[in-house]
Specification:
The protein is of the alpha+beta class. It is built from two helices and seven strands, in the order E-E-E-E-H-E-H-E-E. A five-stranded mixed β-sheet has the order 3-4-5-7-6, covered by helices on one side. Strands 1-2 form a two-stranded antiparallel ribbon. A hairpin with a 2-residue loop joins strand 6 and strand 7. The chain starts with a strand and ends with a strand.
Length: 106
């Protein structure tokens, strides 16, 4: 997403391959510039990605989020994502193990 000519947010969508998985996609690379958080732009960006996914036949969106990122978790829950699991030690951040929540929108 651009504001003027400056990028302020990005969401990637990775479609699953193969007939048995073609109804699924994973949301990746989610970023919103700090100055734009709370402005509604993230809502617009996520809605655009969700709309595109629906247009191409995706019925299930999946994502992983740092289990301590309460703001992001609330954001996704407000958009209909449910917590379905956890990946222990999904990341190593500065020598510290970080769990990720698995969230799904159907």
């Amino acid at each position: 997403m651009l504001k003027g000519q400056d990028p302020v947010g990005i969401i990637g969508l990775m479609l699953q391959r193969g007939e048995k998985r073609s109804h699924r996609a994973t949301i990746v690379m989610v970023y919103m510039r700090e100055s734009e958080r709370g402005s509604g732009l993230a809502d617009e960006l996520l809605q655009a990605v969700m709309g595109f996914a629906k247009e191409v036949g995706v019925h299930q969106l999946e994502l992983n989020v740092n289990h301590t990122n309460d703001r992001a978790i609330r954001f996704y829950e407000l958009h209909g994502f449910d917590r379905v699991g956890k990946i222990p030690a999904a990341l190593i951040d500065d020598g510290r193990e970080v769990d990720e929540l698995i969230m799904v929108h159907r």
